[in-house]
Amino acid sequence: MVNAGDMNGSGNLMDFLDEPFPDVGTYEDFHTIDWLREKSRDTDRHRKITSKSKESIWEFIKSLLDAWSGWVVMLLIGLLAGTLAGVIDLAVDWMTDLKEGVCLSAFWYSHEQCCWTSNETTFDDRDKCPQWQKWSELLVNQSEGASAYILNYFLYIMWALCFAFLAVSLVRVFAPYACGSGIPEIKTILSGFIIRGYLGKWTLLIKTVTLVLVVSSGLSLGKEGPLVHVACCCGNFFSSLFSKYSKNEGKRREVLSAAAAAGVSVAFGAPIGGVLFSLEEVSYYFPLKTLWRSFFAALVAAFTLRSINPFGNSRLVLFYVEYHTPWYMAELFPFILLGVFGGLWGTLFIRCNIAWCRRRKTTRLGKYPVLEVIVITAITAIIAYPNPYTRRSTSELISELFNDCGALESSQLCDYINDPNMTRPVDDIPDRPAGPGVYTAMWQLALALVFKIVITIFTFGMKIPSGLFIPSMAVGAMAGRMVGIGVEQLAYHHHDWIIFRNWCRPGADCVTPGLYAMVGAAACLGGVTRMTVSLVVIMFELTGGLEYIVPLMAAAVTSKWVADAFGKEGIYEAHIHLNGYPFLDVKDEFTHRTLATDVMRPRRGEAPLSVLTQDSMTVEDVETLIKETDYNGFPVVVSKDSERLNGFAQRRELILAIKNARQRQDGVVSNSIVYFTEDPPELPPNSPHPLKLRRILNLSPFTVTDHTPMETVVDIFRKLGLRQCLVTRSGRLLGIITKKDVLRHMAQMANQDPESIMFN
């Protein structure tokens, strides 16, 4: 062992930390990453690879592989996300139909596929074929009558309960993180928060399986939000295969942003909408490079889904529509009214759903998640079966509501009274008076609308995968279709009114009720999520209605204005706050005139700040400080008297460094001096081996003065993604502001409970 005297004299001491040791630079669960540090580490890594690439051909090839690894990850994410989405679509189609009957020729065929393969299907009865049998036909050989109806009704409920029970049990036992939509948590993770296991392999597997089960059970939820979570799980899995991403949490989040785009791309068949959704709604840090990679991942995912062709219509989505009539300026008024309805529905839904979820968290209700799912499923199935519009899957319902009434449509919504003398082309059918089928459909839709509004409030947030896009669109599409039929009949019966005279002559096809359904769907989705640009792009990619961008924009903007008048938070932000995630929203404005000194800790009357000195504390002193406090890091000062700032050391890295030093470096004992300077301090002879920890010291921690306005501090935290910021005056350390302090202060200023932002 080298004695301390020799050590003090030698200038080239071995610093064991010059070699990186395991887990340094990683973060604990439920902690925030340091964006600046991650960026600086990636820059150092890139610089090292670039300088090495000039040394040999092999190093040059390695540098090329490193540069291409990002694109390879995007390709893999796109392929897996597209494949999973296709499999989910096919499985949902089959299992939804399984509640009503089975295909005798091949039990794995859905109703539609079964009748496609039949040679005995007629055009008028295209849904009926001998190969497809309802359960009553199969079990008691009856297709009509009360007993057949009751048996089908009973089996419909039993299948729904079976699917829902299996889903909630799988989530509860194997992957508790697989519940919910996943978008609030994805937003939080992308802002720099660590939730270990949330994007793990078990979560991916269980979420994929249970998503099929819950959508098939007929509950009022969609698969679109959870598909974003599934795609991000794929992104996390593939990024762990490349050290460039697995060892850098900042770079990993760039991959997850692109994966979110791929998720929306396959959920809606909207690659551009997916990229814009990731940019507008979920991402926190979105550099230009991530934009290109998101575009590529969304393209590959959409291409993969198109190759699988799950809907059999050579489209990426179930509800592709083609309208043949233009819209007119006078129609902007009903479109804006639908926007107002969407905004009001969004506000009502957010307030009621958050109140119900809060009740679930704070009362005994939350202790019985399985029972809650079973009860809601039973109520949904019992009420949904008698109404043909709620019995079918929500995607099929939206598809029917979006459809224009052509000559070949057999839906009740298209039961108009035809003029026998009509000799018009098939795609240009004039407005006609509504028949009895339309009036029946109207009151059934009205009942379905009320049911959907109420049941979705209780369904979203249960311990099963649950998306909100499809139920919101269904509410808007039902309201829109009813408004559309109303305007159409008004125009038909009163074509001499001044507003209709210019554009709606007798015998003209001037109002398209399906377009109103599309606009209503966009308005309601916008009211709940507060999306604007990405929403409009998703809607016209979803439906192929390029001509109708202006009505969609008008409805989306109106719904956002109306909803914002009652509260700025969308449903995802509301759930982030409910769960207490430390999420600093870029959209929030801070306008209060407070200073850094009002927020920093320690406050007056509190114990002084826990600090480390640069060269006068022993290993035992540092370990005691770590044991007695739960802070994530400690400022390092020159001495406790001067309090001049030297740097900042993370708690986790101090623990790891001391543990490794005791294992790997001889002579490090409890009374060894810990120093953070370049040269060791002057020590008396025969002192134990000192421990140099300069490598783990952040020499450039972010500092502000005590008179910095909090508006500026909040902006710095948002734009730089800081974990903490030190407060100084004339170089002397006064206190510290952490991200949670900022969030607490913002909650206090908004007259909310400051402790409500703590993660629970």
TrEMBL record:
<feature type="transmembrane region" description="Helical">
    <location>
        <begin position="255"/>
        <end position="279"/>
    </location>
</feature>
<keyword id="KW-1133">Transmembrane helix</keyword>
<keyword id="KW-0547">Nucleotide-binding</keyword>
<keyword id="KW-0868">Chloride</keyword>
<dbReference type="GO" id="GO:0005524">
    <property type="term" value="F:ATP binding"/>
</dbReference>
<feature type="transmembrane region" description="Helical">
    <location>
        <begin position="227"/>
        <end position="243"/>
    </location>
</feature>
<keyword id="KW-0406">Ion transport</keyword>
<dbReference type="GO" id="GO:0005769">
    <property type="term" value="C:early endosome"/>
</dbReference>
<dbReference type="InterPro" id="IPR014743">
    <property type="entry name" value="Cl-channel_core"/>
</dbReference>
<protein>
    <recommendedName>
        <fullName>Chloride channel protein</fullName>
    </recommendedName>
</protein>
<dbReference type="GO" id="GO:0015297">
    <property type="term" value="F:antiporter activity"/>
</dbReference>
<feature type="domain" description="CBS">
    <location>
        <begin position="697"/>
        <end position="755"/>
    </location>
</feature>
<dbReference type="InterPro" id="IPR002246">
    <property type="entry name" value="Cl_channel-4"/>
</dbReference>
<feature type="transmembrane region" description="Helical">
    <location>
        <begin position="368"/>
        <end position="385"/>
    </location>
</feature>
<feature type="transmembrane region" description="Helical">
    <location>
        <begin position="68"/>
        <end position="92"/>
    </location>
</feature>
<dbReference type="GO" id="GO:0010008">
    <property type="term" value="C:endosome membrane"/>
</dbReference>
<keyword id="KW-0967">Endosome</keyword>
<comment type="similarity">
    <text>Belongs to the chloride channel (TC 2.A.49) family.</text>
</comment>
<keyword id="KW-0067">ATP-binding</keyword>
<dbReference type="GO" id="GO:0008021">
    <property type="term" value="C:synaptic vesicle"/>
</dbReference>
<keyword id="KW-0129">CBS domain</keyword>
<feature type="transmembrane region" description="Helical">
    <location>
        <begin position="515"/>
        <end position="540"/>
    </location>
</feature>
<dbReference type="InterPro" id="IPR046342">
    <property type="entry name" value="CBS_dom_sf"/>
</dbReference>
<dbReference type="GO" id="GO:0005886">
    <property type="term" value="C:plasma membrane"/>
</dbReference>
<keyword id="KW-0812">Transmembrane</keyword>
<feature type="transmembrane region" description="Helical">
    <location>
        <begin position="441"/>
        <end position="461"/>
    </location>
</feature>
<keyword id="KW-0050">Antiport</keyword>
<feature type="transmembrane region" description="Helical">
    <location>
        <begin position="468"/>
        <end position="487"/>
    </location>
</feature>
<keyword id="KW-0677">Repeat</keyword>
<dbReference type="GO" id="GO:0005247">
    <property type="term" value="F:voltage-gated chloride channel activity"/>
</dbReference>
<feature type="transmembrane region" description="Helical">
    <location>
        <begin position="153"/>
        <end position="175"/>
    </location>
</feature>
<feature type="transmembrane region" description="Helical">
    <location>
        <begin position="332"/>
        <end position="356"/>
    </location>
</feature>
<dbReference type="InterPro" id="IPR000644">
    <property type="entry name" value="CBS_dom"/>
</dbReference>
<feature type="transmembrane region" description="Helical">
    <location>
        <begin position="195"/>
        <end position="215"/>
    </location>
</feature>
<keyword id="KW-0472">Membrane</keyword>
<dbReference type="Pfam" id="PF00571">
    <property type="entry name" value="CBS"/>
</dbReference>
<dbReference type="Pfam" id="PF00654">
    <property type="entry name" value="Voltage_CLC"/>
</dbReference>
<dbReference type="GO" id="GO:0005794">
    <property type="term" value="C:Golgi apparatus"/>
</dbReference>
<keyword id="KW-0813">Transport</keyword>
<dbReference type="InterPro" id="IPR001807">
    <property type="entry name" value="ClC"/>
</dbReference>
